[in-house]
Amino acid sequence: MADTVNKTLDPQLNRRGFLKGCTMAAAALGLSETMVPKLVEAASSAQRPPVVWLHFQECTGCTETLLRASNPDLANLLLDIISLDYHETVMAAAGHQAEQLLHDTIQKYEGKFLLVVEGGIPLADDGIYCKIAGKTAKDILAEVAPKSAAVIAIGACAAFGGIQAAAPNPTGAVGVRDLVSDKPVINIPGCPFNPVALLGTVLHYLTFNRLPALDSLGRPLFAYGRRIHDHCERRPHFDEGRFVEQFGDEYHKQGYCLYKVGCKGPETFNNCPAARFNDVGVWPVSVGHGCVGCSEPNFWDTMTPFYDRLPNVKIPGTGIVEDADSVGRKILGVTAAAVGIHAAVGVGKRLVKGKSGHEE
Ligand code: FSX
Ligand code: SF4
Ligand code: F3S
To answer: Nearest Cα to 171, choosing from 202, 233, 222, 129?
Structure first.
């Protein structure tokens, strides 16, 4: 299966990308460069962990972000270090053959395979809203998860229910952790997730023989331990009170902070500013769009409207919660004393202009 996928990828990239991918994963894991050889050794082991990848309620964007990434080294590396034995989107088998393959894989590798789940699981009306081969998603999960070694819930849908769980959640969609309690479940949310987080998790598992440390929402701390806002390249603009007031305005063109046009970075934990996406190294905020909070639980409900500003935000180091204009004005005082009144007046004008267009 993994070989079938790999045949479509360039073997040159495969070799060249191996070290690069391990180095990237080491950086994402917060390991020093001296650990790279250990990761390479674990990744080169002949003992590739079998992986069963199930699809439930979702858009398949998570699989797309992995396999169609413009950085094929990542997909190659991941497919080199695991044995992807069952994946409905890309495998050649279909129908009864596919069913047999799933059955055989979970018997053969009982207690040893990693189960990756992509998509939410609907519970309403006994789960009839997602059926594969006549079986409901909840029944398939109940059959496969207890036989796995651990479960990786990939993407916002498998982690927290995702878009189909948004109010009024007509199908009663939930995430894997709501149903699986007898196996370790690691959440790698995001809509879609970042492949670097999956690669880091798998390499950590292979190198140290255990899953990485998790936060209270089951997310690996190495990837979700910091707020977007705390390592965003636009943060100096936030701190100085320089905000985009409207998409396309002169402040937007100058790369100012996107807080007032809805950025949810201050309430979102993820490593997008560091891990970035694809080989061109971009992430939503770097291309001018606010973070929509896609790695947080129920973000379709809690982070919407996406283009309205968060009502308040914590001021670093103080624990005080204030609105963005107060932050700007406070800093304005400091700025006025430090660099003179002219620059400060400029910031003040911008903050006054901000009264139009968006909720203050
Ligand atoms: Fe959900 Fe992933 Fe969003 Fe889509 O499958 S996390 S809808 S990008 O693809 O599960
Ligand atoms: Fe970056 Fe958004 Fe925070 Fe502004 S509000 S600094 S754009 S994360
Ligand atoms: Fe998602 Fe925000 Fe990163 S929208 S991709 S967590 S910048």
So the answer is: 129
